[in-house]
Design a protein that fits this description.
The structure is a homodimer of 251-residue chains.
Chain A (H helix, E strand, L loop, with lengths): L22 H14 L12 H8 L3 H13 L3 E4 L3 E4 L13 H7 L4 E12 L2 H7 L6 E11 L2 E11 L7 H6 L2 H7 L4 E12 L2 H7 L6 E11 L4 E10 L5 E6 L1
Antiparallel strand pairs in A: 1-2, 3-4, 4-5, 5-8, 6-7, 7-8
The structure holds a DNA duplex (30 and 30 nucleotides).
DNA sequence: CAGGACGGTTTGTCCTGACAAAGTATTGAC
DNA sequence: GTCAATACTTTGTCAGGACAAACCGTCCTG
């Protein structure tokens, strides 16, 4: 009898079938908690999905969907004929499409923004191309200086098509661009970024409180909303001494 | 009667039920082709999934799975009560976990590698921590200089645990690290990267054919295989004048 | 004419059932 | 003892059906 007993046993889970939260999600969330809290040790094998579904009182497709969800997050690995294993709970979310403002606010680093320029102008060639709009279409163009905890961190140039969102100077000072876009229902869903480096000109150095020739991280980005419409083009400069990009990749 | 006729009509698809390729994947691939070739215009709405399933001769779950696959790739967007829309076919794959060597080879830029150092040593603190192994465990440590089309491009320091893979100098000269890992069955599936910038020291500048103080892109990365085992730690330096990172993000 | 109620459309969730394919372990033959 | 055939376990794929929830447009009422 080839019984391969699993070593990661999932206790019963209280499910709420009246809740608007889908069943598969309730199961997935509970499982994720168990893994993160160490209730199901890393490297252990889960029970097979048929048993699991039966014991938790859900159908196999629902159980599969919950497991699949965690597989996509990189918490579980499945092999046909073998089983489902818990792997490396540290690395989780694929990549976050977040804004600098959000990142700073989340880590309590008091973001502040100084708007150095804001006007409506026809889109120049490279901006129009990046946004996929006609050259000369109206865009709001602005330059911001971003501070964190009182220190300058980045110079940001951005373009937003005027028919996507009318940008007010006052709003932009208090809230991040992405927050404004989200509030207007223009939620960025996809972005293409190019990250590079160069040295600071004297003008840039002065603004960023660095010396001429200091290393800067450059990032240019185009973001689209869920309907595929380009909502933002950005060309940013970060002080390399204070900022770096962190990202998690999965195949 | 509120009939909302779709404007993106999917023609019948020849499906091969004897093929080992899953049905849902055949459907998805065909659909993807149609979108990329412009057969189904961007912005158009697809027929509803029930009809589509019926016409293609598959069940609704299968049809849903095919559509879901393309939604995850960012080619389609669905809204309950509305339908499925084609969006922006340009931006596709989430992120690729590829190696510099592969990238260069693919674009025909003749990668060449010079191994400047290779030995087995106990893992120092920061490497052990990044790899999640005990301090002092044996690793293969090596420094490589990577050329593209005859010009120096990057200085790469890497560590690979000896029990993951025994690295031979000769192999490394002809093939990329990731190719070696894959060949040994240690396929990298997940990676954590931090990208920053700094200026070159004179030693680094000499190697890279730059001048002292030239901007460099820095990248440190830890990669894991599918079982969650750390297979590689890398600390790389790229000439910012010749290299930048490009990535696509989705929520 | 404005605004809410209503109905139709479309995707989302969930279930049961069945067979296929890939690994793993056991068994049996040589 | 070694190796190949076999049985078993586990995940992968697929079908068909049912109801719920969100969205859109229309109609009716005030």
């Amino acid at each position: 009898m080839g019984e391969r007993t699993p070593n990661g046993v999932v206790p019963e889970v209280p499910l709420d079938r009246t809740s608007p939260v889908p069943l598969y999600f309730q199961v997935a969330t509970r499982l994720q908690q168990l893994i993160e809290d160490g209730g199901v040790p890393v490297g252990s094998r889960l029970e097979n999905e048929v048993e699991l579904a039966e014991r938790l009182g859900v159908s196999r497709p629902t159980m599969r969907r919950a497991i699949q969800y965690l597989v996509e997050r990189g918490m579980l690995v499945r092999k046909r004929g073998v089983g489902t294993q818990v792997v490396h709970p540290k690395v989780r979310r694929p990549v976050e499409l977040s804004s600098l403002y959000d990142d700073l606010a989340k880590t309590g680093r008091e973001p502040r923004t100084e708007i150095r320029l804001l006007d409506v102008r026809p889109a120049p060639d490279h901006v129009a191309e990046a946004l996929g709009i006609a050259v000369g279409s109206d865009i709001t163009w602005f330059e911001r200086l971003r501070f964190a905890s009182g220190e300058p961190l980045a110079i940001m140039h951005n373009a937003v098509p005027t028919d996507v969102l009318a940008i007010e100077r006052a709003d932009l000072e208090r809230r991040g661009l992405y927050e404004l876009l989200r509030a207007a229902g223009r939620v960025p869903r996809m972005a293409n970024q190019v990250v590079g480096a160069r040295t600071a000109t004297s003008a840039e150095a002065r603004l960023l409180d660095e010396s001429r020739g200091a290393p800067l991280l450059t990032m240019t980005r185009t973001a689209w909303d869920e309907s595929g419409r380009a909502v933002e083009y950005g060309s940013h400069l970060y002080r390399a001494s204070r900022y770096s990009f962190e990202l998690t990749l999965t195949i």
